[in-house]
What does this fold into?
Amino acid sequence: MAHKLAAGNWKMNGTRADLGQIMALAAAHPDPAVDISVCLPATLISEAAQHVADHPITIGAQDCHSAGSGAHTGDIAAQQLLDAGARDVILGHSERRTDHGEDDALIRAKLVAAGDAGLRPILCVGESLAERDAGRTLERIGAQIDGALEGSDGPPSALVIAYEPIWAIGTGRTPSLDQIGEVHDFMREQLKARYGDTAAAAVPLLYGGSVKPGNAAEIFGVPNVDGALVGGASLKESDFTPIITALSAS
Ligand code: PGA
It folds into this structure.
């Protein structure tokens, strides 16, 4: 069985003054059976990692470069994120695919770089509304998974996959539970075909896109949903803790 994971994605939000939210999250004594990660802007990683050092919470980043070092102004290598205290890294988020033109081949290279550095990658996949309306959701998800995992014999170490329909991110709209279940079952089958039943079962499959305290429990009741990648509702401890509690109870 995959570990349960509640991952927060602060995106380009927050300054050091907001780190109290992470202290409060740590103080809420979350269930040790649920992994918690908060993926922060790079500027906050080092200080936040020190705050959670004695707590069962890890700090993550939101992207890394595919190279280990070199002439890449403004970019950050996976090893540097690890050195700052990150243990997880979101890769292939739809906002990076759109804002920075990231394609599956680049995301594959970043997955390898993250794995080499010892970071746990949270690979994001998801369809646009046009793709869903055209009945191409599973085709799109399958292509993104294939593109990112191509050539790997086993799952990249500690792989996590997050299904995030682009039209559900930050919009307050969520797919139906049947639609979430269909995609999560499909992703598990894709992983089984690629790596075998045991390795596939160990990969946490997260749902992301407008997860809130009010809808978390029903989403976590869907088979093959092992947790959530939470954007807006991860910014405040008072929103994130009830989501973690719902995951713990699922
Ligand atoms: P949201 O973002 O929870 O604010 O919809 C999720 C994400 O983009 O990871």
Remarks:
- The two ends are 14 Å apart (CA to CA).
